[in-house]
Amino acid sequence: MEGLIKGLAEVAIGFVAGDRDDHPERQSSPGGEERSRSTWADVVSTGKHEGQGQAQGSSYGYPSNHRFSRKDEEAEQESSLGHNAYSWDSRKEKEDLAHVKEEKTDGDWEVVGQGSHNKKRHPSAFHKVPKENWQMFKLPPSDQMYTNAIHYGADTQPSRTELSDLSEACSKLWELDLNRLVPGKDYKIDCGEGKRAHQKGDMASGSLFKWLGDDVLRRSTYARFCSLLDNYNPQEGYKEVVTPEERHEQTAFIQEIVRTPPINYLHKYLVEKGIVSGNSEEFKEMLTHLWFDLYSRGGGHGSSSAFEHVFVGEIKGHGENAVSGFHNWIQFYLEEAKGNVDYQGYIFPRRYGEHPDSETQLLTIQFEWNGVLKSVSSTLVGVSPEFEVALYTLCFFVGKEDNHVRLGPYSVNIKCYHLGRDKIGSAFPIADC
């Protein structure tokens, strides 16, 4: 990789309000400094593969010696406000271009454009990206090209203090997120005006994201994360059908993120705690099962997974008509660019006089997705996919339902709900008072 990514300059920002409406359904069992760009951006944009290691794929299953340290917990009933019926008539077709819906094509370029639910013109409308840049992410695992295992010289060995204090461990994960974006350099947001969760009306005249750097979604872990986002039917309760191609994408994503400092730290931490073995293949199997194994939600067998709920989002039916999950900023950006998300403003902070701005990386917001309301949602903006996977996995194994931790300048409660013994029902951040 080019250069050493120094991390994020701290910002003096107030804390925003927490997510009140995202608890998983109750079930007794699961059903300012210059940052160097990733060389993967050059590989993808030029089609050259020099210097990249090739990794072989493997089939994933729980290792026989794997054990969980947490007691079984039943997840709380998810409650949220919503309006406008939403009907999903058919499974979305696979999309080549990092989960950006194709409105029309122009030769070898794919045009991403406007959806019907968001009338605001997003800056990314009609943005063109070469299709061939993304084709390598559709290859079988044995043919995939991966970045070399580079840790930027970071110390990923947990200290005794970190092993005894979850907040210290989470703080270390924040430091190790060397792939995190810098506000104003890699992207820009406009928070608009604030509102209370119960208030109606759109308090944002434009989109949340004003722009995102062209290279961001071509970075290795970001690109592989994007390839997963269109693998799901968002209507809660509908059985998911996982194709061989989608399993390849899951394998490729896990294979990529284990090369990063946050996941490397997570593995060593769980080994020290006696939760997983030191075998890297078994560790990858565990991550794959934890995040991608299907379980029941909303009455449908095999209708949901931790990845779908936390990162992609789901739409409740049966008269509720509300969005649940959907806590990832990349998914938000892409859906907003497509016109499927209508940002409606931030939720007023709990502390008087503190308001988010373009530098804030912990946001509590309100939006509509495909015409269905998410009255309160919280997200960490600009963090890498590997950081979020590491953070929520760590809290799942060694934390509790409420995990009050520090992430850089932010005091955060990482909510983590279990489904049965070994499934993540939901996980998301809430700004602490």
TrEMBL record:
UniProt xrefs under CDD domains: XendoU (cd21159)
SUPFAM superfamilies with a match to the protein in the record: EndoU-like
Any Pfam family the entry gives: XendoU
Low complexity compositional bias, start-end: 52-62
Compositional bias ranges of the Basic and acidic residues kind: 18-37, 89-102
Domain EndoU residues, every copy: 162-433
Alphabetically ordered keywords of this record: Endonuclease, Hydrolase, Lyase, Manganese, Metal-binding, Nuclease, RNA-binding
Leader peptide range in chain numbering: none
Disordered as annotated region, ranges: 15-102
GO molecular function: hydrolase activity; lyase activity; metal ion binding; RNA binding; RNA endonuclease activity
Cofactor: Mn(2+)
Subunit structure comment from the entry: Monomer.
Family membership: Belongs to the ENDOU family.
Protein name: EndoU domain-containing protein
Organism listed in the record: Dendrobium nobile
